[in-house]
Amino acid sequence: MRSLFIFLIPLLALGIGQVTKSFAAEIEISKAWLRASIGQSSVTAGYFTMQNISDQDDRLLSIQTFAAAKVEFHMTRIGEGGIMRMRPMGGLTILAGESASFLAGRDHIMLTGLTAPIKAGNSIELILTFEHAGNVRVAVPVARRNPFP
Ligand SMILES: [Cu+2]
Fold it and tell me: What percentage of the chain has pLDDT greater than the value 90?
């Protein structure tokens, strides 16, 4: 008769199950899309949701892209005579733990001075600059209509 030795491998001591966190994004972008530009039009709009998963308020300050000379933040409101009007706003605050959105039919980002027509099926990189989170790069799909209705 031989003795049978059973060795229990201390899995946890080997570090299995432990997650090493690197740079956790403080702002998560979702439901991002750009509207395909029409013909030779040099402007188009974009939409996305920003989730602030940090514990401090943050603010979207600016957006840059190679696809356009300028990116503005526009709000759309019903003005006098029931006419929808859009006007620029300086930035957008996202409270700690909360989210803020540019939604089709409401607020949007406006790309002006397009360097080339923006075509459905393509993907355009935007660099979003936040007061605290810094630069967040997002590859944004281009579509003719809202893929997130
Ligand atoms: Cu606009």
Answer: 68
In a domain, 16, yes or no: no
HEC states along 46-93?
Answer: EEEEEEECCCCCEEEEEEECCCEEEEEEEEEEECHHHCEEEEEECCEE
Instruction: Give the pTM.
Output: 0.80
Q: Is residue 20 part of a domain?
A: no
Please indicate, yes or no, if residue 135 is contained in any of the structural domains: yes
Count up the domains in the chain and report the number: 1
Chain segment 50-105, per-residue pLDDT in tens: 999 999 999 999 999 999 999 999 998 888 888 888 889 888 999 999 999 999 88
Tell me how far the alpha carbon of residue 98 lies from the centroid of ligand 1, in angstroms.
24
Report CA(109)–ligand 1 centroid distance (Å).
Answer: 7
Ligand 1 center from residue 139 Cα (angstroms): 21
Cα of 64 from ligand 1 centre, angstroms: 16
How far apart are the CA of 110 and the centre of ligand 1, in A?
5
Domain presence at residue 99: yes
- State the residue for tokens 């997650």: 19
What is the span of the domain harbouring residue 41? 26-143
